User: Fold this.
Amino acid sequence: MKHNLHQEFQKTYGKEAAHTFFSPGRVNLIGEHIDYNGGLVMPCAVTLGTYMLTALNNDGVFRFKSINFNDELEIPIQNAYQKTGNSWYNYPLGVIHYFVKSGKELQGLDILYYGDIPIGSGLSSSASIEVVTAYAFNELFKGGFSKLELVLMAKKVENEFIGLNSGIMDQFAVAFGEENKALMLDCDTLDYEAVDSNLGDYVLSIINTNKPRKLAESKYNERVQECQTALKDLQRELDISNLCELNMTIFDHYKHLINDTTVLNRATHVVSENDRVKLAAKALAANDLTEFGRLMYASHYSLQHLYEVSGIELDTVVEYAATDKNVIGARMTGAGFGGCAIALVKKDSLDSFTKALTEYYTAKIGYAPSVYSSLIGNGVGELHEASV
Ligand code: GLA
Assistant:
């Protein structure tokens, strides 16, 4: 922790923080761009995340400040809010918007946020701030919402307040994550199981390409649209309500119904990725990490060539990983278009992997990546220790 957050709160608001909440970020082991197609995904919460320190005020206002950003907001308690510009505080503002709309009685709050998730890295800093805010408001104002209702509220913020048509994976993972477990989540039914993420002799390494994401939102919404087109085409003969109800055998039989080649590629990724998650779950349960790693590479190549959400930076990381005998699997994680990749690296080779990858990547891309070895942590909650 780079900051003493309690001291910062005291400095900012001239009083003690009464509560500290934390929500993690997430990585997704496999199952990419299929949550909004009713697919299976396998995310884990990470130990990086967003801290939210708060205390009530008697001024009838919400004050939002962040250690990470200069822009701040003071806004009276009212019935509805609107997104203003592109500032970070639209995420908590969106949560409060839906909280107020639900008729809960609120009091003024002074809030200080701090996040150690690199922004724009694809590790879900936005879901993290949404969920920590929703959780805190629910606790402080006795909202009575279940955790799943808070997750759905946070997703609504992303979809309707912010305007990104994302699925439920990120908000779900940061809320329900468990230490050393991956969540096997069915995004259609929202049933999930926390499975042991036992990686044996390997560690999960997170590689931030440090490529600023550009046009990610519009490209993301375009992919969602393409999947809907594929679904409509298939529904001419199939009684399905999402693409992930199919497996590759059935899909091959009906794919002629999709006319557009790009749309066909997108759907092929979706259906094959869902099949891969099922195989990956089996491999993990059988401790077959070689097979798990193979599926990670296959997932990446599908995202690269069929779904086209990778890029030279992410591809370079995976390209290097595939040549390193101490790496068993690698892929981009999250929405793509920059952001992070993950790799399963032999425990005792992490330093040499980091060094060699950094050299390879820098020579090709012109700047260095950041490499973390991640700890898989818990989901959202209140922190009671005074250590932050
Ligand atoms: C983003 C979205 C998620 C999911 C991933 C891709 O992180 O927020 O809902 O679609 O991209 O798997």
Summary: The radius of gyration is 21 Å. The mean pLDDT is 95. Residues 2-198+377-387 form a domain with the Ribosomal Protein S5; domain 2 fold (CATH 3.30.230.10).
